[in-house]
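Agenda item 2: 6-O-phosphono-beta-D-fructofuranose complex prediction
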Amino acid sequence: PRKIYFSRHGESQFNVQGKIGGDSFLSPRGELYAAKLPGLISDNLGGKPLTVWTSTMNRTIQTAAGLPYPKMQWKALDELDSGLCDGMTYEEIEQKYPEDYANRDEDKFNYRYRGGESYRDVVLRLEPIIMELERHENILIVGHQAILRCIYAYFMNYDQDDLPYLKIPLHTVIEFTPKAYGCEEKRYKVDI
Ligand code: F6P
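Presented output:
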């Protein structure tokens, strides 16, 4: 049966600093994850073919660099654009834009960052990705938190209200085996 794997990029420098968005590279721990990922995938997949999809951002490209498979970069897989708030911590956003902060808390799926995107926007821009995923053989997506929440919710039938809160931890590979009804899921956590 075919497999779809998802992983967030390894821990980034912005993750360490608690900043959202940006285009930083990996932290030392993130680099360790990137180094362990090829072994985990090949143990799991055996010799079967795989295509790796990343976003166009440094942290996903760097995470996938050591994977010996054909790769494709998709702009549509870039992290949710946080507009004016890009590069800030949640505390800074709460201080500087308290109304925005409250509005997002009120309706996280529909809240659109000023000059940026909402989860609803991201779900729309991911449509072509989902179409391609349905047609392809084995795929590994090295992606971002908000993006993987949307894709995960599509396959696991979560609704809009739950989607922005789904737990997609760092340094974990999620494996989906599509079945006639729904998807079988396994998670592989990498200790670093
Ligand atoms: O903090 C990592 C990150 O991927 C940010 O770049 C992004 O804005 C955020 O997570 C998305 O999570 P949430 O929608 O919960 O703020």
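Discussion summary: The longest helix spans residues 28-45.
Owner for follow-up: CH.
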